[in-house]
Write a structure and sequence with these properties.
Rossmann fold; alpha/beta; NAD(P)H-dep_reductase; Flavoprotein-like_sf; oxidoreductase activity; NAD(P)H-dependent oxidoreductase
Length: about 200
């Protein structure tokens, strides 16, 4: 059996983003566990702000189609989700909105969200570690799009001190969450692949 294909990205493209560090760390741990990891930056998939009139006039952006294809080729997807004002980032929400609009012939609606297994995490300078934003992301993925999201999450609070110079976690609780998330994501994707 082939190794699970895991797509990883962050909902932030800011230089020095804590969530980009988290995405890199999750990718490193998944690769060490023999997953086939593809890490992308949403900076490489620019899209206009979603607007129904724009969609009717110009169709769905090619970058949304490229991202949808990557998602559908993946067995699992990890999203590092920054928290902006206790919610989801505009970049991540816009990306999800555009990809969700694509329905190719013979597909069910929101097909890119139906087959991969999702895992989410956050890193934030605050004491909650992005937990409030993760609630919104989980709701969008599960309730809005019918995605299967692992119950296990990783939350890195006080993220400015949360990573050492090598990019590893300094907090034991967060490190334990990372191990649990990686193990669960690989176990569940391998199970789905065996069906």
């Amino acid at each position: 059996m082939r190794q699970p294909r895991i797509l990883i990205f962050s909902g932030s493209v800011r230089a020095g983003s804590h969530n980009s560090k988290l995405a890199a760390l999750v990718g490193k741990h998944l690769a060490l566990a023999d997953a086939e990891v593809t890490r992308i930056s949403l900076k490489d998939y620019p899209m206009p702000i979603y607007d129904g009139d724009l969609e009717a006039q110009d169709g769905v952006p090619q970058n949304a189609r490229k991202l949808k294809r990557l998602m559908q080729e993946s067995d699992g997807i990890f999203i590092a989700c920054p928290e902006y004002n206790a919610g989801i980032t505009p970049l991540l929400k816009n990306t999800i909105d555009w990809v969700s609009r694509i329905k190719d012939p013979g597909e069910e609606p929101m097909a890119a969200f139906r087959s991969p297994l999702f895992a989410i995490g956050a890193a934030s300078p605050g004491a909650f570690g992005g937990m409030r934003g993760l609630i919104g992301v989980r709701t969008i993925l599960e309730v809005g799009l019918g995605a299967n999201v692992l119950p296990q999450m990783i939350v890195v609070a006080r993220a400015a001190q949360g990573f050492d110079s090598k990019g590893d976690l300094t907090d034991e609780r967060a490190a334990g969450q990372l191990e649990t998330l990686v193990r669960s994501l690989l176990r569940q994707t391998r199970f789905q692949m065996s069906l």
